[in-house]
Amino acid sequence: MKFRSFVRYTGLLIAAAGAAAFADGGPTVEQYVASTNGTAYIVPTGELRINGYRMRCGTRATVIDDNLDDYGAAYPGFIILNTKLLLRLPQPVMLWIYSHECGHQFRGPDEETADCFGVQRGRREGWLNEQGLNDVCNFIAAAKGDNMHFAGPHRCEAMRRCFADPAVH
After folding, report:
1. What is the pLDDT of residues 24-55, one digit of tens each?
2. Domain residue spans in the chain?
């Protein structure tokens, strides 16, 4: 997720829902959905399918929010996807975005770690091959770096190293 978009979106959400709801580091999935005035909905754990692939992130739910200003995002305990944007992308990129956001759930806020989690998960589960990794790299190639993300080409190099790691089964 673009950091500036995330900060802008988070700021709007905090203003809308009230700071007290976020005292523990973020809204609950129900609070988030309520803040969208009925435009988002929860997909229960284990029921999300992306092009026929069942996507899971442990016990975390997924919120579909087609007004989200990015492809995906994560709060502690749930993932948010904008399917209007995702459906424009090649399948490996859609699956990687979900897995990247899932990586934040298990590995924390570091973007490079979440990138690596996503490609290793894809390789392990069989939906990401060299061509799919090229699709992901093409998708992020133009991304400029900021205080949360390295530039796209650097991220791609790091993901290629993670993908090639012989310890991934």
Report:
1. 578 999 999 999 998 999 999 999 999 999 99
2. 3-164
